[in-house]
Amino acid sequence: MLAGVYDITAQLSGFKTSKTQGVRLDPGQRLGLNLALELGEVATEVTVAATAVKVQTESGEVSGVITGEHIENLLLNGRNFLGLALLIPGVNSSAITGRSVGGGSLNAGGLTGETPLSINGLGREFSLYTIDGAYNMNTGNNININITPPLDTISEFRVLKDNYSAKYGVAGSAQVMVESKSGTQKFHGAAYEFLRNDKLDASNFFAGIDPVTREKRRTPLKQNNFGFAFNGPFYIPGAYNVDKKKTFFFVNEEWRRIRSGLTLRGTLIPDPMRKGDFSQSPT
User: Fold this and answer.
1) C-alpha of 178 from chain center
2) What does the alpha-carbon distance between residue 84 and residue 66 come to, in Å, rounded to a whole number?
3) For the chain, what is the domain count?
4) How many CB atoms lie within 10 A of CB 190?
5) For the chain, what is the largest distance between any 2 Cα atoms, rounded to a whole number of angstroms?
6) How far apart are CA 208 and CA 205, in angstroms?
C-alpha cells in the first residue's frame, strides 16, 4: 500500500460496524491494527480516532520518518532532501569535496547525485536508496543516486537503520525510501524560486581587504533554485474518469544554477626574508 493516512472499516452481520480514522502508514512500514467488533445492529457504528503508535510491535526494526510537514515547513539550505535525514539519530553527513550536505552547495546529493549520508557509522556506499520501491542507485560506484527528487515532489521518506527485514537486502547499513507525491481530485499548481546571493552574506574570515573600499571582500555567490509543480486528475469529460477518482498526474520541473568563487589560502614568504633577512626564521 502507498504511504498515507487511511480510514479502516470492518463490518460483519450481527455486529456493530467498527471504523478507525486517521491511521498513518509510512513508506515500507509494517503496521498492525486490532479491530474489535461489538455485538449489535449493523446500523450501529463505532468510530475510533487513531493515535500515534508508541512502540513498534510488528517488527524489531528501527527507523526514522521525515514527513511532508517537515519537508514543507523546515528551512533547508541548498534544498537537498538528504539534509533533512540529519534530523534522525544515527545519521551523519560525510564531507564531499570540502562541503557537507547541509551547506549551500548543490554537489552533495544535489546536482552530482552524490550521497553524503553516513548511517550508524558505516560508509555512504553501504546505504540503499529507492523511490516508490524502485532501485535508485548507480551500480558503478554505489555512492551516487540516479535521480535526486526535488523537495516539492516528495510526500515523505523513511530511513530504516537497524534490524530491518531481509527482503530489502543489497545494503547492510540503511535503506532510504522516498515516497513521491501523486495528483488529487482538484487541480493544484505552484511556481517558486529560492535565492542565495553574496550581497546577503557575511564576509569570509580569510577573505582579503578590498584596496578601494577597505572592507573585507565577499566570496562571489549567486545561487538560484526555481521551478514549478502542477497536479490534478486526468479525465475526459463524459468518457473517462468523470468522477475524477481513478487517474491522477503530478508534474514537476526544477532548475538549479550556482555561480560561486573560492577563497584560497596559502603560505607566503615574509617581506624580511625576501630582502635576505632570515633572523626571524624558525630554522
Assistant:
1) 8
2) 7
3) 3
4) 11
5) 105
6) 9
Strand duo 17-25 + 45-49: pairing = parallel
**Is position 272 within any domain?**
no
Which residues of the chain fall short of a pLDDT of 70? 1, 28, 41-56, 95-112, 283
- Grid coordinates of 188: 493544484
pLDDT at 36 (0 to 100): 78
* Cell representation of residue 5: 493516512
Q: Tell whether 66 and 150 lie within a shared domain.
A: yes
**Are residues 90 and 176 located together in one domain of the fold?**
yes
Distance CA 113, CA 106 (A): 9
State pLDDT tens for residues 26-83: 776 777 777 777 887 656 666 666 665 556 677 778 888 999 889 989 888 778 888 8
* Residues 66, 51 share a domain: no
Residue 265 CB: number of other CB atoms within 10 A?
A: 5
Q: Is the dihedral of CA 194, 198, 204, 207 positive or negative?
A: positive
pTM: 0.72
From CA 124, how far away is CA 203, in angstroms rounded? 33
Paired sense of beta strands 62-66 and 45-49, if any: unpaired
Q: What residue numbers bound the domain in which 91 lies? A: 60-181
CA-closest candidate to residue 148, choices 116, 183, 126, 103: 116
pLDDT at position 108 is: 40
Helical H segments across the chain, by residue range: 68-73, 271-274
Confidence at residue 98, expressed as pLDDT on a 0 to 100 scale: 41
